[in-house]
Structure to design on (425 residues):
């Protein structure tokens, strides 16, 4: 959430941000409501001050046995005016808050300006794209041949857009989760947490999924709870309505969770397999840092996510997202995409974002400066470290052999009883 005072004093910058993001918000209406609310607040406070003075004067007159009826009558009129003003202030404040919740973060000056992903800027490529002596199979063909997934039974159990891992497929999924958690905790100094997969409305609002993206989320019918779209939501909200000590900063967390998204929808051939699913596993990275370090922390976050892919020897590329392609809450975001030769496409497996104080204002997360009573909003960051469904696609398709077997990347072998190749059973 942007600070209302900031919007008031930097209206042109906010308007430019909205234009760069191709979003429409009635800033004139917002500022008009803000002006009206401040006017009513001043009027109400003035009347309350007058009422307090009159109350003291009435008490004095009664003690002195003087007639205070006229002053009492005047105070009743004043009290009635206050009763009329207070609900108006509450109503306008609610409207203002709702409008503020729908204004996106201000993009950093380094973010490419453009309406969509075509304006993204490629900043890095890593690894060599393998030249096969045969036509590479898709992950769907490989998983069926190797007997490690069963998409038809997943569809029977739940519906389209879900996967059923079995045998070495399930073992590979578990190995990847443990490998990433160990890497991030032992090498990158993150604290592991295992949060709930259901969160309340306040949590979803705090990280920016609500109100804008409510239709894309899975919501429980009988409780106002949501299945998490990413571990970013519960982990960031761990410190909602808290004031941290400066000595605790920076705070790094990593978490494995399942993730649930309705947005998959219908995408033709992408409805089969793992490329676009409603439920997937992910290891998430979340940071709480001081404002002056947040963009340096974003670069470190990106490197932590890249390390996963490099150790698994998968070609990837990194893009800086444009204003039109970046998430609502982010000020700057990098996407990491893996090459999938069988599917013949690049697959996004991680978005690494700096949200500055945008989420912290919504979730009321601050820190107290050392030796001072002053509190400051933290800066929050998060990135996938990384998402598994598409990572599995890339592993199967990049490490396949002509006979349909798949070589297991070396870092995963300790998690799979030293198995080095997945062969058909």
């Amino acid at each position: 959430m942007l600070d209302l005072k900031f919007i008031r004093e930097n209206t042109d910058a906010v308007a430019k941000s909205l234009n760069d993001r191709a979003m429409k918000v009635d800033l004139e209406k917002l500022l008009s409501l803000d002006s009206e609310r401040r006017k009513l607040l001043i009027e109400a406070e003035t009347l309350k001050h007058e009422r307090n003075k009159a109350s003291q004067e009435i008490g004095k007159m009664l003690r002195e046995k003087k007639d205070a009826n006229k002053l009492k009558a005047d105070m009743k009129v004043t009290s009635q005016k206050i009763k009329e003003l207070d609900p108006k202030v509450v109503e306008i404040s609610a409207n203002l808050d709702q409008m503020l919740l729908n204004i996106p973060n201000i993009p950093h000056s380094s973010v490419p300006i453009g309406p969509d992903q075509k304006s993204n800027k490629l900043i890095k490529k890593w690894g060599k794209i393998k030249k096969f002596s045969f036509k590479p199979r898709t992950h769907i063909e490989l998983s069926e041949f190797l007997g490690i997934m069963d998409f038809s039974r997943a569809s029977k159990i739940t519906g389209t857009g879900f996967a059923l891992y079995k045998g070495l497929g399930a073992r590979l999924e578990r190995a990847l989760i443990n490998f990433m958690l160990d890497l991030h905790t032992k090498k990158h100094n993150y604290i592991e947490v295992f949060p709930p997969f259901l969160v309340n409305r306040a949590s979803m609002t705090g990280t920016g999924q609500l109100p804008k993206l409510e239709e894309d989320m899975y919501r429980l019918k009988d409780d106002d709870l949501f299945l998490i779209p990413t571990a970013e939501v519960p982990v960031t909200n761990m410190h909602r309505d808290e004031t941290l000590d400066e000595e605790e900063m920076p705070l790094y967390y990593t978490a494995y969770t399942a993730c649930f998204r309705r947005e998959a929808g219908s995408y033709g051939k992408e409805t089969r397999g793992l490329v676009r699913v409603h439920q997937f596993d992910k290891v998430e990275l979340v940071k709480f840092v001081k404002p002056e370090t947040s963009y340096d922390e974003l670069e470190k976050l990106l490197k932590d996510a890249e390390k996963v892919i490099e150790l698994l020897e998968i070609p990837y590329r990194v893009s800086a997202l444009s204003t039109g392609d970046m998430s609502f809450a982010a000020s700057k975001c990098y996407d990491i995409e893996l090459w999938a030769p069988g599917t013949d496409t690049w697959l996004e497996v991680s978005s690494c974002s700096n949200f500055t104080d945008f989420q912290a204002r919504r979730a009321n997360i601050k820190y107290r400066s050392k030796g001072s009573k002053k509190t400051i909003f933290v800066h929050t960051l998060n990135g996938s470290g990384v998402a598994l469904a598409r990572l599995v696609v890339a592993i199967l398709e990049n490490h396949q052999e002509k006979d349909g077997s798949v070589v297991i990347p070396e870092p995963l072998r300790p998690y799979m009883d030293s198995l080095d190749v997945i062969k058909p059973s």
Notes: Residues 117-422 form a domain with the BirA Bifunctional Protein; domain 2 fold (CATH 3.30.930.10). DSSP finds twelve helices and 15 strands in the chain. The CA atoms of residues 62 and 179 lie 79 Å apart.
